[in-house]
Amino acid sequence: MDNLKQVKHLYARAGFGADFAQLHSQRNWSAKKTLRKLFKESEEIQPLAAITENLDLRQLRKDAAEGERKAIQELRNQQERSLNAAWMKQMSTTNAQLREKMTLFWHNHFACNIGNYYFQQQLNNIQRTHALGNFKTLLIAVSQSAAMLNFLNNQQNSKAHPNENFARELMELFTLGRGNYTEQDVKESARAFTGWAHNGKSGEFVFKAGNHDDLSKTFMGQTGNFNGENIIDIILANKQTAKYISTKLYRYFVNETPDETHVNQMADVFYKAGYELKPLLEFVFTANWFYEDKNVGNLIKSPVELLVDLNRRFYISYDNPDVLLQFQRTLGQVLFRPPNVAGWPGGRNWIDSSSLMYRIKIPSTILNAGIIDFAGKATPEDEAYLASQRKQQFNVIKRVQANADWNKFLEGIPLKAQREQVAAYLLEPPLNARIVAEVNKAADIKIMVIQLVSTPEYQLC
Amino acid sequence: MKRRDFLRSSTLASGAFLIPAFLKPFETMAMSAVSGYKNLVIIQLSGGNDGLNTVVPFGDDIYYQKRKTVAITPNEVIKLNDIQGLNPNLSALKEIYDQGWMNIINSVGYPNPDRSHFRSMDIWQTASNSNEFLSTGWIGRYLDSNCQTCQNPYTAIEVDDTLSLAMKGSKMKGIAVQDPNKLYQTTREPFFKDLMHGPDNNHLHEDNLGYLYKTMIETYSSADYIQKTSKTYNVVAPYPATGFGNQLKNVSKFINSGLNTRIYYVSLGGFDTHVGQQNQQGRQLKTYADAVAAFVKDLKQTGKLDDTLIMTFSEFGRRVEQNASNGTDHGTANNVLLFGGKLGKAGIYNNAPDLANLENGDLKYQIDFRDIYATLLKKWLNVNDGSILNAQFTGLDFV
């Protein structure tokens, strides 16, 4: 694979894609050099600060007055919109691409869906701060966050009546994966986490000694007066945790179907590095297998990746960012609202009849008022459809209110660039005869670009 | 005749859109074949519905001993016999039950039960053993079996925006349709139609790109048909104004318009009641019962109830003993509810759950859920259940 292809692939996976000008200037760079730049740019940690007030959601209870409930609900919805918009904007504009991409990974790995957006923002910032750091530090910070303590009911986990929800998900979803612990392990470790709670106002972690069960527990063959941190240490000492995280990262960055050999290599690196993430990621992004053909252009972008990719390539700004939330809803991935504790299943699960058709229509809706010019032979029905689309274009523009910087986009394309080169830049899978035919039929570059981002190929990275 | 010309002429003949003919034979079943058409409606309650507070064993003292604060008191229970009765939020179903259109199967589960939502849901949806991981769903494999009446993606419709694993086979999959008109509108783009029959078909590989194109092709063949057929019928019966009520109303529209669909799949979530169970579960059960009662009465009115079977399940029941947060934790066996105009057996199918004989505090299952699937496949859909379930199950006699 030539350098340009490697650089492009690396940006598509370790980040959200590079713009044309950047790719062109780095076309002779090695993967290693590009990776150093990606890490360097991700040293900066820019926390989200959209939410400043921790709303008292107890006013949402049934016995509250109708007016009060409505008012607080409206405030909460407003917070959801601003937090969502703030993160979308950050992903779409930041230079710290790798950090944001990993934050998105942890957002799904440590999936959390609660109505308190002040706590959600805290959790998101924890995931961003430790995104490229140490997994154990991250795991403890997440487990002690108000958001997760709430979401997995650890607030209700007490000595007298242990609640197993957190202990189970800790092992099933955060560390070991199913089948690597027993029901007894769940029961015993739940006791170790009793007393883990948070301050209702600030969200800060508090340990309530009176609620903690300090008697002996037997967990994974070891017996002692374990507390929560002890349990996490035992879980991390088990190499299965390194393997489980490596598998998930492999599916996120390399291929939906894990390769046993590659994953084992990753787990070795991760475990030996004491769960440091940077050496693991460096290993993946410099491995030969990462650049093999079968691992290029064959991952289905998540809806958020699809939107961010589009925003970055066309430098899009939104007068009304709520429209991005609407697109997320339509495509089945609303940030901060994962369907359940396991997060979004991803891959082919993003695709079904409805979502696929929306996915290929959304780029033209954002970039060109929903119009995809058509050079082929149109039937009367096609003509009628196209006419109706043109008729409503002002409505579409009014609703979407997105501004793409076409000048900047077109300036980034080198003068001598062939149409097929532009196509190869926009699409990750190799160009085939159908795409080449469409590319050569298009009346001009802009029409061609709109068509290219409206293909199934553009859904892949 | 050139391939393209052939496609155009077959398009004219069928009124459908340009689909490569080798991929999708145009299936237009004569309307006469539609009479006596059997429908199966599956309702999934996600999160693990507490079956013991749904069909309440009020006649069993152990129930009250184990559930000091979350039990339904005997005077609230809608009594069905001396032992079991319905949660008061299911009051709309009483009338349905009295008509003989409802059947309750107690203690349904499987060996070595899994208490993870996702895993247990996968087991129910793929009809696997608990130590077996399958990537196809049982309805998907029904579609794959290529029986005479199950050759189109719209043979199985999920009224939702996304498709569940249950609906995915290895070759075929069902289609997710929340709003038929919206789906139809998305397929009108001339550029998209052009993309689907370019100069080569090398893109139809097994990789993700091939998967995207195949999905697109199936969507075209189904969207047109579903839209044109379903718009011929308007639902007149009243439905509760809930999301779930609307979904069942859509199913009614599909069934009554004569859509050649055999299986409908609908879900209702919010049943993971670790905390403050009574309010939360009560709310969800009411949403469920009000919509199902409206649906059953609607179908009775339109003469379709005899050709319809409705099955409700959840991925697991909950532990017999409540927790300290006025909730219940993940358990095992659970009840399955059936509705239909022609049930082989109405009322309560088998004995109430045995609360005295538990396994680690959980109910022991008495009926394997795959015996229910086998019955539905064999006796209701008339297909070979063994090859779809990869095993022989005796089946039950509720049909």
From TrEMBL, chain A:
Enumerate the InterPro entries for this protein: DUF1800 (IPR014917)
Q: Which Pfam families match?
A: DUF1800
Query: Which superkingdom?
Result: Bacteria
> Which protein is depicted?
DUF1800 family protein
- The organism of origin for this protein: Mucilaginibacter aquatilis
Automatic annotation (TrEMBL), chain B:
Q: What is the protein's name according to its record?
A: DUF1501 domain-containing protein
Pfam families given for it? DUF1501
- Highest taxon of the source? Bacteria
Q: Which SUPFAM superfamilies match?
A: Alkaline phosphatase-like
Please give the coiled-coil regions recorded for this protein.
Answer: none
Write down the InterPro entries for this protein, in alphabetical order: Alkaline_phosphatase_core_sf (IPR017850), DUF1501 (IPR010869)
Q: List the source organism.
A: Mucilaginibacter aquatilis
